[in-house]
Design a protein that fits this description.
The chain is an alpha/beta fold. The chain folds into 2 domains: about 1-50, no CATH class; about 55-120, no CATH class. It is built from 3 helices and 7 strands; from the N terminus they run ββααβαββββ. The chain has helices at about 20-25, 30-50, 70-85, and strands spanning about 1-5, 10-15, 55, 90, 95-100, 110, 115-120. It has a 3-stranded parallel β-sheet, with helices on one face. It is elongated.
């Protein structure tokens, strides 16, 4: 039996109660990993009302993947828009993007897609 309950400070907790101890002894790390992944997916769906989070692709804000152009303003614009709209995912698509310092905000998650590179430099030429 699996129970999910809301605990203090708004945190969720899951507890597993096995009625049959023989079943408990046969669980593997893989089984527990799958169970944990399922709980995370259920938690994420509950937090978003079952909807996928909004995506803000940095190329839609003017970022160029040429490994030379400094895209700090475009990337920061995507982060700002994401945070202002209530949160979501700022996506770095395939390609190499150069940027200076960026500042993530509450609700904005950064996701680098496969074959995507975000090259952050401490000092960039403008």
């Amino acid at each position: 039996m699996v129970s999910i309950s809301k605990r203090w400070a708004g945190r969720w907790a899951a507890s597993v109660t096995c009625v049959n101890s023989k079943l408990w002894s046969n669980l593997t790390i893989r089984d527990l990993s799958i169970f944990y992944a399922f709980l995370l997916a259920a938690y994420a769906a509950a937090q978003t009302g079952g909807k996928a989070p909004a995506r803000f692709v940095i190329t839609d804000f003017g970022a160029i993947a040429d490994a030379k152009t400094v895209n700090t303003k475009a990337i920061q614009s995507a982060i700002d828009k994401c945070a202002a709209s209530g949160g979501g995912v700022v996506v770095v698509p395939k390609g190499t993007f150069v940027s200076g310092a960026i500042f993530l905000k509450q609700g904005a998650n950064l996701y680098v897609e496969k074959d995507g590179v975000l090259n952050l430099k401490s000092e960039v030429e403008r």
